[in-house]
Amino acid sequence: MPETNFFTDVDALAAAIPDGTKLAIFKDSGVPMAAAKALVRRQAKGLHLVTIPTAGMIVDMLIGAGCVDIVETSGVSLGEFGPAREFANAVKAGKVKIMDSTCPAIYSGLQAAEKGVPFMPMRGLIGSDILKNRDDYAVIDNPLAKDDPIVVVPAIRPDIALIHVALADRFGNLWIGRQTELKVMAHAAKGTFATAEKIIDTNIMEDERLASASIPSLYVNGIAPAPRGAWPLEMPGQYDVDRDEMENYAKLSGSGDGFQTWITDRVFAKSVAAE
Amino acid sequence: MPETNFFTDVDALAAAIPDGTKLAIFKDSGVPMAAAKALVRRQAKGLHLVTIPTAGMIVDMLIGAGCVDIVETSGVSLGEFGPAREFANAVKAGKVKIMDSTCPAIYSGLQAAEKGVPFMPMRGLIGSDILKNRDDYAVIDNPLAKDDPIVVVPAIRPDIALIHVALADRFGNLWIGRQTELKVMAHAAKGTFATAEKIIDTNIMEDERLASASIPSLYVNGIAPAPRGAWPLEMPGQYDVDRDEMENYAKLSGSGDGFQTWITDRVFAKSVAAE
Amino acid sequence: MNNCRPEELMISAIGDLLEDAAHIAVGVLSPIPGSAALLARARNGARVSIIGSTVPEFRTDGGIDLFDAAGQGRVDAFFLSGGQIDGAANINLTGIGTYPELDIRWSGAFGSAYLYFQVPKVILFRDEHSRRTLVKKVDFISAPGVSKKNVYRPGGPYALVTPLCVMMFDRIAGRFTLKSIHPGHSLEEIRDQTGFDFDCPNDVPDTATPDKDTLSLIRGDVARAIANPYPAFAAKMFGI
Amino acid sequence: MNNCRPEELMISAIGDLLEDAAHIAVGVLSPIPGSAALLARARNGARVSIIGSTVPEFRTDGGIDLFDAAGQGRVDAFFLSGGQIDGAANINLTGIGTYPELDIRWSGAFGSAYLYFQVPKVILFRDEHSRRTLVKKVDFISAPGVSKKNVYRPGGPYALVTPLCVMMFDRIAGRFTLKSIHPGHSLEEIRDQTGFDFDCPNDVPDTATPDKDTLSLIRGDVARAIANPYPAFAAKMFGI
Q1: Could B216 and C57 be called an inter-chain contact, meaning their C-beta atoms sit closer than 8 Å?
Q2: Which chain A residues contact residue B165 at CB under 8 A?
Q3: Looking at the predicted structure, is the pLDDT value of residue A270 above 70?
Q4: What would the mean pLDDT of C79-95 be, rounded to a whole number?
């Protein structure tokens, strides 16, 4: 069982994520942007990113900054801000290995790891080029019926689930609200690192309103404080997406020098992270 | 999608559960005791009970009252109040068909139905007489590895999940608190009937504290009011187990006439339900 | 044609295809299908789930729950699109060229390779009707239009709606049939702009324009509701 | 032997077996193993999850979560019992006679047929040491003690604790070995009361009685903590 480490800041947390880590990142809020920028600052290499189940700016940035060898995903896009051009360029250039999937296959793989089973059956996929290009997927005959081909996907067991939450406590518990996928990630991963908007001294598990939407410390290996840790993305109930910052990223990314300028200004100039 | 029916009372709800229904019941609070007594009153027949994953008095009583043909369970016991003697007697007499399982196999079967897959792999079970006696389970070779036998259990899709909750609303939403298994049951079953301690006029889904621990009306076919609807079992935060009543049941059940007396007094004399 | 805009016509046309859908799910970045789902909600009381919405009445219990609900048969209609769509209703959300190092890389399949199989009524929507988007054969099948008989597939393609027309998909024949042409456009134009072969009855009607009530619903209830997930769309389209 | 009671000796003996377990799960109706787990918590800081407990520090996220945690390798120790336990560590929680219409029907297997495979250190506990409970061969294998080599089984039986002795289980040999005899009992008595054959070194020590610190922990912190899930046990045993 982990004794939860409390890191002084996101850079200390990023230092504890080794090169080559198989790292799971959730698509929605909270997106651990501050932690990802710290990974860029420490020039992490060879990451195997698993997006749960899709991703946006965070993965695009990590790829653009050269931190990533493999990206396992159902889709990478900046959403309403446009295509993820660092991602697209790296795939086209063969700089990252792409493992294309479809959302419920990634969820099923995580849920297999959560249950400690080596695979999970799932419907769909048969006849797609997604399936054709995934050597680790298989089509079997449903063993409980006749003439019923069905896909099995392997368990996805990330080394670390990296998440951002609104609230953590000094006992290592995390409050996740409605984002139940974060719980599946924590169960499936070997360990979980969390950044938190706020770390409180009272025990989340002893507050009934919070306890029913929480991840107990059993799963949590490390916590770092990160106020505005999802910025420029939103944190529901706390702050909205910073549209100017997103549009600026969308404009500069994918353009070589522009992206480098953005990285220098917005990642290495550390103070902006807390804007 | 169901338009949620609002029944006037538990008897109206029980009248909407046909004979022969494959009925899922959760082991813990809230145990829908009031609804089960209404099933006894309407002399329901041929039920296929699936206990999630074990059961106590509720299933013992339904079996003793002759409502049950099949019981699919990982264990039936009155816990600290002793063995479930109506259950044991009925199994010994061959009056009910027993489908013995183990807790995570029942959960896995439900989760298969929840995901719409025909089966789920699970570890364990190999070499047990549980497995030997379940023709509907199979052992297959893990298709993604070599020489790795693994059990597959079929999806369990109950006709109705019958649950008792603290709170429902007029829009058909249920608040379930920490009992996340109730959500899995509602997803897996074709439909869900709930009894509720209280039915409120405001929308559970619009209250953030409640929404993160709720079952939306999408899954809910019927709701009946049932204050003290788990009695004599406990309802966390509302009332404790009625030890005298439980000891009385434990004493009278399994003894033929004693059980009949209990049924007459405690089930058909309707007023006791609201004690 | 009354004075409805092209987007309003497509919203109305999709809405007409949704009449018997009790639960409609909408993905991200789908303002026109989303508006059509909200129209079906306003007209028929359909339940609408919008992936990623934070509005209590539209939000889901999360991604896993929505895919599971589709697996349970609890989602009646969904929308898909594609960088390429071909005549067998295959869709390509992945890219153009030879996989994996494509010439053009798009976002990826998202949930399509699953939902296309599970949801009974999948309506394909594409905002550009051209030989670039509607192709003879997609470069990459993110999700196939048809499956072999023994493949479990309660769902699949139902119709295709574009700025030019509505086509219906025949899952047995594996082909589209032109159903209606939007007012102001012609069969010749559609043939010219479509990269795949499709069936065409002798007499293809105009796509029905929304009646007064429908149009006021679109510009009223629907516009107000779509403004939360799609503020930019609502501002541009309806001025709110 | 100091003046500790038999139950306190068993709590202490089980506690000694739990020294390297960081996360111990306890099932329902297991007050003595439960107390031992709480002793390990007090002594070594072990995390203890008690199935069905409503106490925040002991409760799990529900049954599914606990079984999943065991599948993930996040549960180090668990306790099982049985109406019958045999010399190959097979346990029977189902009944006596010919299945399914048994002569005596017990509750059923609960989680045993899974957890016995998954949890590295499963300690068997039985409060009655007799030829009725410790049999040559169980009538029904609710969960098997050993598995074929190709069966995935990170867990299994580790020891057996009874009112007479502690036995250790050798998973390769598939046999129990007597480890210690509780003070006041003899090897002869154990042989007489045990229905199965077991290995026995020449010199079997007495089971260590709890030292003063351990005994005061048992009667203090442990007694207070066990009173919530097991009020009747705590009242009877510790007078609280």
Answers
A1: no
A2: none
A3: no
A4: 98
Q: How many CB pairs under 8 A join B and C?
A: 35
Pairwise CB contact (< 8 Å): C71 & B216: no
Sort strands D121-125 and D77-80 into parallel, antiparallel or unpaired.
parallel
Residue C132 CA to residue C142 CA, distance in Å, equals 17
Cis omega (within 30 of 0) for bond into B79: no
pTM of the model: 0.97
Closest CA to D15 of D43, D36, D31: D36
Q: Please check whether residue A213 touches D, CB under 8 A.
A: no
Which residue bears the tokens 């299933």? B59
**Contact assignment for C108 to A74 by CB distance below 8 Å:** yes
Helix runs in chain C, H state only: 6-17, 31-44, 63-71, 112-118, 187-193, 212-217, 223-226, 231-238
How many residue pairs from chains A and C have C-beta atoms closer than 8 A?
A: 141
Cis amide leading into B2 (omega within 30): no
Interface of B with D in 140-159 (CB under 8 A): 147-150
What residues 13-52 of chain A have any CB closer than 8 A to a CB of chain C? 27-28
Domain parsing of chain C, residue ranges: 6-238
Asked whether at least 3 C-beta pairs link D and B within 8 Å, the reply is: yes
User: What is the β-pairing status of strands D95-96 and D104-105?
Assistant: antiparallel
**All chains having 3 or more CB pairs closer than 8 angstroms to chain C:** A, B
Is B113 within 8 Å of B156 (Cβ atoms)? yes
Enumerate neighbours of D (3 or more CB pairs within 8 A): A, B
Q: State whether D56 and A211 contact (CB < 8 Å).
A: yes
Question: Chain C: nearest CA to A109, how far in angstroms?
Answer: 12
User: What is the tens place of the pLDDT at every residue in D68-113?
Assistant: 999 999 999 999 999 999 999 999 999 999 999 999 999 999 999 9
Q: C20-29 pLDDT, tens per residue?
A: 999 999 987 7
Provide the pLDDT confidence category of residue B28 given band limits of 50, 70 and 90.
Answer: confident
**B123, B128, B236: residue with CB nearest D71:** B123
Nearest residue of A to residue D23 by CA position? A1
- pLDDT for res B271: 55
The predicted structure's pLDDT at residue A148: 98
Of A43, A66, A63, A67, give the one whose Cα is nearest residue A55. Answer: A63
In this structure, what are the phi and psi dihedrals at residue B274, rounded to the nearest 5 degrees? -105, 15
In chain A, the domains with their CATH numbers are 5-101+157-267 (3.40.1080.10)
Q: What is the DSSP string of chain D?
A: --S--HHHHHHHHHHHHTTT-SEEEE-TT-HHHHHHHHHHHHHH--EEEETT--STTT--S-HHHHHHHHHTT---EEEE--SEEETT--EE-SEESSSSS-SEE-S--TTHHHHHHH-SEEEEE-S--STTTEESS-SS-SB-S---TTS--S--EEEEE-SSEEEEEETTTTEEEEEEE-TT--HHHHHHH-SS--B--SSPPBPPPP-HHHHHHIIIIIHHHHTTT-HHHHHHHH--
ipTM score for this prediction: 0.96
pLDDT (0 to 100) of residue A196: 98
CB–CB contact B87 D106 (8 Å)? no
CATH of D6-238, one of 3.40.1080.10, 1.10.3720.10, 1.10.10.10, 3.40.980.10: 3.40.1080.10
Of B188, B205, B219, the CB nearest to C56: B205
Over residues D115-124, mean pLDDT: 98
